[in-house]
Backbone:
C-alpha cells in the first residue's frame, strides 16, 4: 500500500483525462448540478456528449453518486475534480486491504490473505491482449493499466473490483453458513448499481461457490443464493427495469471490434498464461509461478477455500476463452448478444489473486516451523523480495505515467492561446463546439506533446462544454455518426447543432465559418446555425423496426443530398412494416429562432414561421423529453439524425423542451428500499428458518 501511495500520487493532479475517466468525471459534475437544481439524481440529462443522453437511465451510476455524496459531506469546500481524483486514488491504494479482509472472510489464513493482498495491485497484463496480425488491445483486467491516467479510466470497474472481492466473501458466508443475508444483499445490489457486467460475473462465481460443497446440500445452497440474488435485483430494480423496457434508445455500435463480444480463444489465452503475460507482462513471471503453486496446493491440501479458488479460476479461464473455443455454447448465456466476454479476464484475475495468496502461504508452510511474530516478519521480508520484480516493473510503468501527467499539465498550463479561445467561448451564447477528429485536424491540436496524450477536444469535456466529438462510451443513437461528420458540409453543422469550431489557424476552413477569435495557434469560428433549434423540411417519413436498422438509414441520409440541403427524415421507431412511406412536409425558409436559452435538461426558444412547420431541436431523441408550445403539450417525434422534432402551427410560439425522469424509477426505488428495510428487520427470522432447513440436510452445508 505504501508503494502505491507514493507511486500513484500524480493521479491526484487535476488534469483533463484522455480516457473514459473524462466521461465519468463529467457524469459526477452533472449529477452534482442536477441535485443542486432539485432534479432526480438517478435520472437526468447529460447534454455535453453526442447531442446529450440520459446516462443514468442505462449506466451504472452508484460510484458517481458516491463521489457527489462525499463532496456534500465535505460541504463542497473541495473542488469536485479533486474529490473524484481522491476517490480514485484511495481505491487504487486501498485494494490490498479489501483483498485481505475478503480472503480472511472466506476462510484463508492470515499469511495467504497477506500475500494475496500484496500481489493484488501488482498484476501486469500489458503484453496481451494481442492477436496474430493485429495491434494490441486493452485487456481491462485488474492490473492498474485499466485505471490510471495513462491507462483506460474504467472508474466503475475500479469500484467493482473492490466490490467483487467483498461480495464474493459475503455470498460465500451466506451460501456456506446461511449467515449475513442483509449485508450480502446490500453488497450484491451495490455491485449491480456499480457495474452490471461484474454483477453478471458475480452470479456465475456464486454459482461455482454453491456447487463447491457437499452434494446433498446443493439445493439449500442455491436456495440461499437465489434469495440473496432476488433481493439484490429488487433493490436495484429501479435501474434494471428501465434498461429492459427502454433499451431501444440505447446505441449498440456495430463499429466495436468482434473480440469484445467473442474474446480471443483458448490458444492465445493459454499462451499468455503460460508465458506469464497474463499476470506478469514485461517482467519475470513471479505471480504466475505463485499461481501455479496455488493450483498445486489446492490439489495437495484439498482445503475448501483453496479448492473454491481453483474452481473459480478454471471456470473463468474457460469462459474467458469465449466464442472461438466455446462456439455455440456462448449462445446459452443470458444476454449473450451484449456481454463482453473479453472482460471476463476480471474473473480470471480475481481467482488468480486468491490462488497466489494460497500458493505463497503453502510454500511458507513447507519452508519451516517458524512461529509467531518472527514468522510473520520473515514472511513479509521474504515475499517482498520474491515480489521485487513486480515492484520494479510497476515502478517503471508508473514513472512513465508521472512523466506524461507532468508534461501534459505543463503544456496545457503554458498554452495561452487555448486559454484565450476558451475565455472567448465563455462570453458567447451557449452552443455545441467541434474541435476536429482524426479525419481532419484534431491530431494537430495536441499541445505539442511528443507522446500525443491530450487533444484540445478533451478539454471540452473537462470544462463541461457541449461538444460534437469522438465518443468516449457511445450510448446515444447519434454517437457513431460523428465518424461521418464532414467539416466542409454546412448541412452537417445544422444537423448536429454545431455552432462553434476550433481549428488550427493555419487550417483552411469553409467560407461559411466566420472567425470570432484568432490566435497564433488556434482560431475560433462560428457557424450560421443555432444549437437550440431550427425549422426544417421533412423529405420523407421512414419506419424503422429495430436499433440495428437505424445507423444504415441515418448514414445514408447524412452522406446524401438530403442532409446537405438541410432537410430531415421523420423516423417512426420502432415501427413496422419497415420502409419509406413517402410522407413529406415543406420547410419554413423564413422561419426565425430567437430568445434561445439552453440549460442542462431544458431548451427554450421563440419560434416564428408564417406557415405550419417542423421545428427540430438538435438534442438526442428520447421519449422522456416533454415539449410545450405556449404552455400546451406538443407531440414529439424522432427526426434525423436522432433528434427531437415537433410540428408547430403558423405564428410565433414559445417552445420549451424539458427532460423528465422515467416515471417508474422512483416507485421502484422506494419499493427496493422498503424491501431492504423489511429484510433487515426480519433477518433473525430468516436465519432461524435457514437453520431449520439446514438441519434437514444433516447440518452439512
Residues:
Amino acid at each position: 500500500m505504501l508503494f502505491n501511495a507514493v507511486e500513484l500520487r500524480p493521479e491526484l493532479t487535476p488534469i483533463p483525462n484522455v480516457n473514459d475517466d473524462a466521461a465519468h468525471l463529467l457524469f459526477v459534475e452533472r449529477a452534482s448540478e442536477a441535485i443542486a437544481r432539485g432534479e432526480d439524481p438517478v435520472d437526468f440529462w447529460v447534454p455535453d456528449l453526442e447531442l446529450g443522453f440520459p446516462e443514468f437511465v442505462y449506466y451504472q451510476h452508484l460510484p458517481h453518486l458516491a463521489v457527489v455524496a462525499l463532496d456534500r459531506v465535505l460541504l463542497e469546500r473541495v473542488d469536485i475534480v479533486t474529490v473524484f481524483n481522491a476517490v480514485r486514488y484511495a481505491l487504487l491504494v486501498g485494494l490490498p486491504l479489501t483483498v485481505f479482509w475478503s480472503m480472511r472472510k472466506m476462510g484463508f489464513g492470515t499469511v495467504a490473505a497477506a500475500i494475496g493482498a500484496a500481489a493484488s495491485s501488482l498484476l501486469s497484463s500489458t503484453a496481451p491482449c494481442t492477436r496474430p496480425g493485429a495491434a494490441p488491445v486493452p485487456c481491462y483486467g485488474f492490473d492498474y493499466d485499466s485505471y490510471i491516467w495513462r491507462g483506460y479510466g474504467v472508474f466503475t470497474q475500479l469500484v467493482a473490483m473492490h466490490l467483487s472481492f467483498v461480495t464474493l466473501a459475503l455470498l460465500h458466508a451466506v451460501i456456506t453458513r446461511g449467515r449475513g443475508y442483509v449485508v450480502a444483499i446490500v453488497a450484491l445490489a451495490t455491485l449491480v448499481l456499480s457495474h452490471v457486467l461484474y454483477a453478471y460475473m458475480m452470479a456465475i462465481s456464486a454459482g461455482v461457490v454453491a456447487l463447491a460443497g457437499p452434494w446433498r446440500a446443493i439445493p439449500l445452497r442455491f436456495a440461499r443464493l437465489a434469495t440473496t440474488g432476488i433481493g439484490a435485483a429488487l433493490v436495484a430494480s429501479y435501474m434494471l427495469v428501465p434498461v429492459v423496457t427502454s433499451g431501444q434508445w440505447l446505441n449498440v455500435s456495430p463499429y466495436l471490434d468482434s473480440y469484445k463480444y467473442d474474446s480471443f480463444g483458448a490458444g492465445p489465452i493459454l499462451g499468455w498464461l503460460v508465458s506469464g503475460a497474463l499476470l506478469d507482462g514485461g517482467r519475470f513471471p513471479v505471480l504466475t509461478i505463485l499461481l501455479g503453486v496455488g493450483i498445486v496446493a489446492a490439489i495437495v491440501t484439498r482445503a475448501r477455500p483453496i479448492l473454491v479458488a481453483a474452481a473459480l479460476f478454471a471456470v473463468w479461464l474457460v469462459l474467458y476463452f469465449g466464442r472461438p473455443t466455446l462456439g455455440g455454447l456462448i449462445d446459452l448465456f443470458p444476454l449473450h448478444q451484449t456481454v463482453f466476454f473479453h472482460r471476463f479476464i476480471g474473473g480470471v484475475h480475481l481467482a488468480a489473486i486468491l490462488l497466489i495468496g494460497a500458493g505463497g502461504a503453502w510454500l511458507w508452510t513447507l519452508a519451516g516451523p517458524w512461529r509467531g511474530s518472527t514468522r510473520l516478519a520473515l514472511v513479509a521480508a521474504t515475499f517482498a523480495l520474491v515480489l521485487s520484480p513486480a515492484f520494479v516493473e510497476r515502478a517503471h510503468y508508473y514513472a512513465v505515467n508521472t512523466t506524461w501527467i507532468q508534461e501534459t499539465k505543463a503544456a496545457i498550463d503554458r498554452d495561452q492561446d487555448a486559454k484565450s479561445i476558451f475565455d472567448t467561448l465563455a462570453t458567447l451564447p451557449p452552443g455545441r463546439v467541434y474541435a476536429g477528429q482524426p479525419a481532419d485536424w484534431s491530431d494537430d491540436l495536441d499541445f505539442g506533446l511528443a507522446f500525443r496524450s491530450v487533444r484540445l477536444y478533451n478539454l471540452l469535456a473537462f470544462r463541461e462544454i457541449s461538444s460534437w466529438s469522438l465518443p468516449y462510451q457511445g450510448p446515444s443513437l447519434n454517437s457513431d455518426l460523428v465518424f461521418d461528420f464532414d467539416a466542409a458540409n454546412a448541412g452537417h453543422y445544422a444537423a448536429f447543432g454545431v455552432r462553434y469550431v476550433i481549428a488550427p489557424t493555419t487550417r483552411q476552413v469553409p467560407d461559411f465559418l466566420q472567425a470570432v477569435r484568432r490566435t497564433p495557434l488556434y482560431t475560433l469560428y462560428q457557424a450560421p446555425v443555432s444549437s437550440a433549434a431550427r425549422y426544417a423540411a421533412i423529405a420523407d417519413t421512414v419506419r424503422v423496426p429495430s436499433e440495428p436498422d437505424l445507423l444504415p438509414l441515418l448514414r445514408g441520409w447524412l452522406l446524401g443530398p438530403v442532409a446537405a440541403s438541410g432537410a430531415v427524415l421523420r423516423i417512426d421507431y420502432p415501427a413496422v412494416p419497415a420502409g419509406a412511406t413517402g410522407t413529406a412536409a415543406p420547410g419554413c425558409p423564413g422561419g426565425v429562432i430567437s430568445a434561445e436559452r439552453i440549460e442542462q435538461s431544458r431548451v427554450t426558444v421563440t419560434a416564428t414561421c408564417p406557415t405550419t412547420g417542423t421545428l427540430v431541436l438538435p438534442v438526442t431523441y428520447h421519449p422522456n423529453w416533454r415539449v410545450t408550445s405556449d404552455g400546451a403539450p406538443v407531440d414529439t417525434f424522432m427526426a434525423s439524425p436522432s433528434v427531437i422534432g415537433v410540428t408547430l402551427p403558423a405564428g410565433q410560439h414559445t417552445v420549451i423542451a424539458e427532460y423528465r425522469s422515467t416515471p417508474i424509477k422512483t416507485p421502484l426505488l422506494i419499493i427496493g428500499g422498503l424491501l431492504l428495510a423489511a429484510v433487515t428487520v426480519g433477518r433473525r427470522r430468516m436465519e432461524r428458518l435457514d437453520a431449520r432447513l439446514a438441519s434437514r440436510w444433516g447440518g452439512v452445508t
